[in-house]
Specification:
The chain is an alpha/beta fold and 280 residues long. The protein is 43% helix and 16% strand. Keywords: Transferase.
Length: 280
């Protein structure tokens, strides 16, 4: 359960992929509501993709490591990720956890991530982000002006001199797009905590498909509407870039703090006339 539009697009793209391939997961769970008792012998455990494989978002990676350790006999599949560790010691400790499992399969979004992931598993595959399965996203109405989607978190980049003093018609970030509806996330956390405390297994399983998936669609629809109102996007968020591609919008991409955007674009979208990459 994220307030980050990019992670929600990844989730929705994953669900779209499952539908296209006629795959029906037996259980869809948030990371915190997940109960190990749900896993049966022979089950395949699938983690959604993103940019949280590493030590920038350590709590998420620790949950993955705990599940990998707990289920050594079940196949583990990680959908497309960008891999980044600021600490070699943390990376090596994580490698040791993964290597104790014989059936981990890791999809990565770029070759830099692939080189790191090869330390973690013999089964590493290069693939684009799952949000691409949402293509095409249609936009309607008149579009004008320039939209700036600007990171304010740990991945915030140094802005190139050519864009430092630029004027934008709208300037925002994902959390502001979610806006007052963040209360729906807070409510989700409260009901999830209540279900976990009471051990209500059926209710815990329903948090994802019954409550969170519709809320996520509401948030991402708001981002789509925002993009639709502008004829050019400037962003340092990877999914600002991907959403612009999904909507066939011309856009300018600034690299994030550790090169995630440029490595992705170099791998998958550099050939597109819609994309202009600005490196610091």
């Amino acid at each position: 359960m994220h307030d980050n539009i990019g992670d929600l697009l990844i989730m929705q793209g994953t669900l779209a992929f499952f539908r296209k391939k006629r795959l029906s997961p037996r259980t869809i769970s948030t990371s915190w509501a997940f109960d190990p008792s749900w896993v049966k012998p022979g089950d395949i455990l699938v983690f959604h993709g993103g940019g949280n494989f590493g030590d920038l978002y350590a709590n998420i990676n620790e949950i993955r490591e705990e599940i990998i350790t707990r289920f050594p006999a079940n196949r583990i599949v990680m959908l497309p990720q960008t891999v980044f560790f600021a600490s070699e010691a943390t990376r090596d400790r994580s490698v040791a956890v993964f290597r104790r499992h014989a059936d981990v399969h890791i999809f990565v979004r770029d070759k830099a991530s692939q080189q790191i992931a090869n330390r973690f598993s013999e089964n590493v595959y290069l693939a684009p982000d799952m949000a691409h399965h949402l293509y095409p996203i249609a936009s309607s109405g008149k579009a004008s002006g320039v939209l700036r989607i600007e990171r304010v978190d740990t991945e915030k980049p140094v802005v190139p001199a050519s864009l430092k003093d630029a004027q934008f018609d709208t300037r925002t970030d994902w959390i502001e797009v979610v806006g007052k509806d963040k209360r729906l996330i807070d409510f989700a956390w409260r009901i999830q905590a209540a279900f976990i405390k009471r051990g209500w297994q059926t209710c815990k399983k329903l948090i994802g498909p019954w409550y969170w998936i519709p809320v996520a669609q509401r948030f991402s629809s708001r981002a789509v509407a925002l993009f639709a109102r502008h004829d050019h996007i400037v962003t340092d968020r990877l999914h600002g870039h991907i959403l612009a591609c999904l909507m066939d919008k011309h856009h300018t991409v600034i690299d994030n703090s550790y090169g995630k955007n440029s490595t992705y674009i170099d791998e998958w979208t550099a050939h597109s006339d819609l994309v202009r990459l600005v490196k610091v």
